[in-house]
Amino acid sequence: MATRRPIHVAVAVGMTAGFYALSLAGVTALQSATEAQLAADRAPAAGAVAQLKSAHDAMEGSLARLAGAYAKAAGGYQAITDRIAGHEQALAALGQQVKAAAGSAAALSVPSLARLPAVSGSAASTGSRPVVNACTTASGKPC
Amino acid sequence: MTADPSDGAVQFERRAMGSPLRLTVVDVAPDRAEASWAAVSAAIEEIEQALSRFRPTSDLVRLNDHAGDPAGVPVHPRLVAALAAAERARRVTGGAFDPRILRDLERLGYAGVPSAGVVAPSAPAPSGLRAGEGPATFEGGRWLHCDPRGALAAVAVPVDLGGIGKGLAIRWAATVLAAVIPEVDDPGVGVLLEAGGDLVARGRAPQGGPWMVAIEDPGGAEEPAIVALEEGAICTSSVAVHRWRTVDGRDVHHLLDPRTGEPGGAGLASVTVSGPDPAWAEVWSKTLFLEGAARIGPRARALGLAAWWIREDGSLEMTPAARERTAWVRGED
């Protein structure tokens, strides 16, 4: 009797392998299509992200410039503060001097109001010919 | 004496030093005014007797008669003081003022009184030298020896005190006046002493305020300016009175330049100076006159003097200090 070979096993294995391969191929194809769709779906978002990154870079540059300007303004403010401090010291010293002068004036009993003497109209250079009292005449004749 | 009760002024007048001597006092009791005039008259008489070269008996004439004698002669202390002042003025002015001009004055025929017509020039001085040259000084280079304590003086050559003598006279008379009227600085009181155009004033004028002094136009026109004199002196050097023509046809006057021995002040008719002291006002008016019309302005301004000058064409000029004291100027009102 002839020995029967287990071809059906091989066929079965082959068919199983083929089925598996087909299934795998199908699954791979499906997955690839899905991923392609996903990639296509994600493409606008990536552009938006790139645009956002560019905007972020620009904003970072602006912030750097603002930081520089702020530092400069802070330096100027410090200088002004120093000057104000100097002026305040000078004002304080002047205040002390005024206080001392006021004290001296009080001690001297300086009047708060001093009346000037009345000026005669004939003493001023008014432009009108004044009354003459004497002449420089060498002969001594009256004016 | 003349009095005007309306303004409280009293005026006295007589002749002295070759010209009218006037005293005006304001708001002083009549008896005190009379006393002040008597004191001033006596002081002027005493000073004139010491300083005048036109009085044959004066101390100055006697001193000039002994010129060149280093032993000197006793003279009045006023003359010693006047000679010392004249020597100081000579040094201060760099020789522009010098009392050693008498021989040149006499050579030109100056007699000390208003001159008219032709005057024959006298012979040149025996030495034939001008002031400041050679025998015009004693040995050692000085022309004057003074001893104020002994009232002794000696001059190398005859001298003429002229304007400075008159200035000193009213300076000293004003001092006497202040002693007689001590209230001269009180409000309302005033005094004015005049001698031939030179004057000193203190206090208020009769109309109130400063004394108003008109600057004379030597040409006879209206006064070109009026000066408000608060206190101090005004003196004038003018050729309006003392000028004449010599027989050789030269028009000359009595304001001689000691450096040349000839009349100076080309282009000028008169110079007036105001200052605190009449003697120095006299000195400066004469030295400025000798600068002449071309140089007087810069010189007067450089010295800071209150000076007015009238050119021969009648035009008036003045320094900034003078303008401050000028109350009125002809043609500006």
Describe what you observe in this structure.
The complex is a heterodimer of chains A (143) and B (333). With 143 residues, chain A is an all-alpha fold. Chain A has 1 helix and 1 strand, in the order H-E. Chain B is globular. The model of chain B is unreliable at 121-135 (pLDDT under 50). Chain B has a domain at 54-160: T-fold. Chain B has a 9-stranded antiparallel β-sheet with strand order 1-2-3-8-9-12-17-18-19. Chain B contains 7 helices and 20 strands. At the A-B interface, strand 1 of A face strand 3, strand 8, strand 10, strand 12 and strand 20 of B.
> Pairing-aware structural class of the strands and helices of chain A?
mainly alpha
Radius of gyration of chain A: 56 Å
- The average pLDDT value of chain A, as a whole number, equals 82
CATH architecture group name of one domain in chain B: Orthogonal Bundle
What radius of gyration of chain B results from the CA coordinates? Answer: 20 Å
Q: How helix-rich are the residues of chain A, as a percent range?
A: over 70%
Low-confidence stretches of chain B: 121-135
- The SS-based structural class of chain B is alpha+beta
In oligomeric terms, what are we looking at? heterodimer
CATH topology of one domain in chain B: T-fold
Q: Tally of extended strands of chain B? A: 20
Name the overall outline of chain B.
Answer: globular
In total, the number of strands of chain A is: 1
CATH homologous group name of one domain in chain B: ApbE-like superfamily
Summarize the model shown.
The complex is a heterodimer of chains A (143) and B (333). Helices cover 71% and strands 1% of the residues of chain A.
List keywords for this structure.
heterodimer; A: 143 residues; mainly alpha; B: 333 residues; alpha+beta; T-fold; 7 helices
Which helices and strands, and how do they pair?
The complex is a heterodimer of chains A (143) and B (333).
Chain A: H1 7-108, E1 134-135
Chain B: E1 2-4, E2 9-16, E3 19-26, H1 30-51, H2 59-65, E4 73-74, H3 77-92, H4 102-108, E5 118-119, E6 144-147, E7 152-155, H5 162-180, E8 190-195, E9 198-203, E10 211-215, E11 225-229, E12 232-238, E13 243-246, E14 251-253, E15 256-257, E16 262-263, E17 268-275, H6 278-303, E18 306-311, E19 316-318, H7 320-325, E20 326-329
Parallel strand pairs in B: 5-13
Antiparallel strand pairs in B: 1-2, 2-3, 3-8, 4-7, 6-7, 8-9, 9-12, 10-11, 11-20, 12-17, 13-14, 15-16, 17-18, 18-19
Helix pairs in contact in B: 1-5, 5-6
